[in-house]
């Protein structure tokens, strides 16, 4: 079946702009809705969300929200000047996969370069790991309404309704990334919708490369070799 199941799913998710070209329409684009739908396919992008025991009350399981992982293994890969080869390999991976899925090279080069710039800015607003060693210090227990007051630019009710499949979600959530969420909405205010959607769906596609067959796996292996020096994929 090749990449057709993935391409069909991308169309269902609003279309990947790099593949849609000028036909992509942002009139009704809602990044919160798209991000939440991707969470239902097990992708933590822009916001990390899970359910686990509350660290202040281990008998109580609760929705928890935090800053996300990035496409490269850590924020330092985007920031350190000496790590440029990793950023180049990451951009090559984006370009190769986008073209293999049907994007023209000029469009892929423009769009994916902007995605890399966006993710670089995103890496700079993440709280460094050394400042998060004591999770209790950044732990906040808030009602959904209180979270909405702290970060009103994000429709938290819509997000939680989608990721919980429209069941009743808890009135309270645990938040570890409040400062990050406030910086995120400021970053998104100055980022065009096309770049945001390209980034969200790129991260989704990156998570699915290993499901697409040998051609795609080889491209991914070239990237992994630069990052980790590993010659072959681990056994499934």
Fill in the keyword field for this structure.
236 residues; alpha+beta; Neutral endopeptidase, domain 2; four-stranded mixed sheet; 12 helices; 53% helix; Peptidase_M13_N; Membrane metallo-endopeptidase-like 1
How far apart are the first and last residues' alpha carbons, in Å?
Answer: 20 Å
Strand content: 5-15%
- Number of structural units classed as domains: 1
DSSP helix fraction: 40-55%
Run of helices and strands:
HHHEEHHHHEHHEHHH
Structure characterization notes:
It contains 12 helices and 4 strands. The chain has 236 residues and is an alpha+beta fold. It has one domain: Neutral endopeptidase, domain 2, CATH 1.10.1380.10. The protein has a 4-stranded mixed sheet with strand order 1-2-4-3. The longest helix has 21 residues.
Can you give me a brief rundown of this structure?
With 236 residues, this protein is an alpha+beta fold.
């Amino acid at each position: 079946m090749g990449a057709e199941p993935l391409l069909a799913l991308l169309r269902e998710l609003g279309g990947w702009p790099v593949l849609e070209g000028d036909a992509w329409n942002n009139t009704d684009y809602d990044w919160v809705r798209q991000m939440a739908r991707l969470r239902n396919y097990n992708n933590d992008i822009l916001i990390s969300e899970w359910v686990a025991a509350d660290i202040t009350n281990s008998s109580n399981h609760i929705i928890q929200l935090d800053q996300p992982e990035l496409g490269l293994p850590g924020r330092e890969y985007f920031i350190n000047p000496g790590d440029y080869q990793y950023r180049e390999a990451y951009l090559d991976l984006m370009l190769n996969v986008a073209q293999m899925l049907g994007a023209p090279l000029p469009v892929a080069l423009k769009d994916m370069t902007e995605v890399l710039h966006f993710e670089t800015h995103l890496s700079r607003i993440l709280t460094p790991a050394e400042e998060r060693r004591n999770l209790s210090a950044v732990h906040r227990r808030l009602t959904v309404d209180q979270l909405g007051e702290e970060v009103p630019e994000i429709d938290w009710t819509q997000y939680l309704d989608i990721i919980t499949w429209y069941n009743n979600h808890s009135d309270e959530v645990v938040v570890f990334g409040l400062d990050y969420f406030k910086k995120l909405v400021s970053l998104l205010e100055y980022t065009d919708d096309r770049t945001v959607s390209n980034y969200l769906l790129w991260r989704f596609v990156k998570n699915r490369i290993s499901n697409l067959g040998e051609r795609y796996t080889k491209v991914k292996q070239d990237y992994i070799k630069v990052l980790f020096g590993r010659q072959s994929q681990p056994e499934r």
